[in-house]
Amino acid sequence: MNPNPTKSFPSAAVKVRLLQDAIYSDDMELWAMLSRYRQHIENYFQEIGLQLVVHDEDGFAYLRQSEQEDGAVIPRLFRRDKLARGVAIVGVVLRERLLQFDEKVHDESRLVVTKEEILQMVAIYFPETNDEIRADKRIEAAINRAEELGLLRKLPGVNGDERYEVRRIIKARFPVETLKALHEQLKAHAITRDIQ
Known about the structure:
This protein is an alpha+beta fold. 48% of the residues lie in helices and 16% in strands. The chain has a three-stranded antiparallel sheet. A three-stranded antiparallel sheet has the order 4-6-5. α4 (85-103) packs across α6 (132-148). The longest helix has 20 residues, at 176-195.
């Protein structure tokens, strides 16, 4: 028996989830806890060189490594993962689609796309092969990786249709300021491929 039981803090679940992934407003209990203890949580993570970023209007929050200004050397907690080319393509295309979705007036708050729509949107940016099945598998692998990274969330399908919600954390991973440059790179690559 432990003579000194660990004291549990109300915000502990929020802190742990933030270290694992983003928190979304549709997880109402965690979101309410985050809102209630936001200052405490910000201070907690600030001590170890992390910054809490909350997008209230889009309903998500995540942690990012702070830039060290005062010369302090705090080891990186989060690795800087360079996205594989396929995942970057899927991310850029879906981020553009989310931007278009947000510009339109409608009742929906979530962008939902089918796997078939994603395949069609990104296919022109993947290298052509004579083996269509192999090409589709490469795109499917990129979609699966995007789901693992939290950019997509698989939804229950209807009539065997695979559907995904485009998660709003994609806005942080592909900011609008860099979106145009990324898209131009993709277009240039597609043109170069077509010329060869």
